[in-house]
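Box 4.2: Ligand-aware structure prediction
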Amino acid sequence: MYAAPFSYHRPASLQEAIKLLQELGREARIIAGGQSLIPLMKMRMVRPAALVDINFIPGLSEIQSPKGELRFGALARHADIENSEAVSAIPIIHDCAAGIADVQVRNQGTIGGSLAEADPSGDWGTALLTLETSVICLGPQGQRTVPLEEFIKDAYTTVLAHDELVTGVHVKVPPKGSGGAHLAFKRTAPVYPTASAAVQLTLEGKDTCKEARIVLGCVGLTAIRAKEAEAVLRGKTLSEKSIQAAAEAAREAAEPQSDMRGSAEYKLLMVATLVKRAIGIAARRARGERAEAGHEYVGR
Ligand SMILES: Cc1cc2nc3c(=O)[nH]c(=O)nc-3n(C[C@H](O)[C@H](O)[C@H](O)COP(=O)(O)OP(=O)(O)OC[C@H]3O[C@@H](n4cnc5c(N)ncnc54)[C@H](O)[C@@H]3O)c2cc1C
């Protein structure tokens, strides 16, 4: 099916984009990679009267690594992030970028579009919540920096006003002795996961967990921070018993619904298994070991 008719606008600067969003009103939508918006328009689930294409605004695709931070322009593509040298400082970010759909989607889809879409199954929200992440938003009143925990309010809902856009995503590099992993279970590559888990740990010595963040994806209306599971690990020695207890606590935090990707019961089992595996990989990385974190696919 074709999308309903719309007008198309191509601003050359952020100021022009904001002015257009103000003039065109609530019926206008920004288009970035188009990987969520275009399918929805073709299914006529959304019918924007106008599209404001931000792809021709210079400087929005950059990936920078000032001291202690990674900074992504809103238009940094998943593939650019996957292939960025700078991202090796935070392996969980590479896991996330490399695991999104297939190469076509990764070549087009953007980090800013993904967070702005706030799809409950979107991978960036899950992975980046394990880190100190800020979303940089710009509107007629100027720029504001919003912590990611506050940026996504609900499924498909963010704090963005209709005339405001995301210009960048800033992530603090975790302290020495840290490691993370993002794992998902998928039916095939070009679909969203059935369940996913992101774990970021900071170790003291080889086995004591100083800090832990555990976030669950696709098992609730937004990514879920499993704080009880984090508390199970914090200050404890990482052992089979403590990791199992954390996985069980994480399962308790999940609120999955049955759908075409799996039953709620199945997702609960999956998410606990993914948390357990992600803790193992995160711990190995925190110790400085090399550990791969690939997604799991049905039948593989
Ligand atoms: C077949 C397929 C499989 C996919 N599988 C996965 C997957 O496994 N995991 C995953 O995470 N994602 C997946 N995606 C989604 C993909 O990651 C998209 O790139 C992402 O959701 C949206 O990014 P985009 O740049 O394409 O945004 P667009 O589609 O252009 O926009 C999405 C929404 O965000 C708004 N928006 C875009 N940019 C901005 C901005 N800078 N400021 C404010 N608002 C903005 C738009 O107005 C729109 O409402 C999949 C998509 C497809 C088509």
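In the box above, the bound molecule is flavin-adenine dinucleotide. Residues 29-37, 39, 54, 74, 100-101, 105, 108-110, 112-114, 116-117, 119, 122-124, 160, 165-166, 190-192 surround flavin-adenine dinucleotide (CB under 6 Å).
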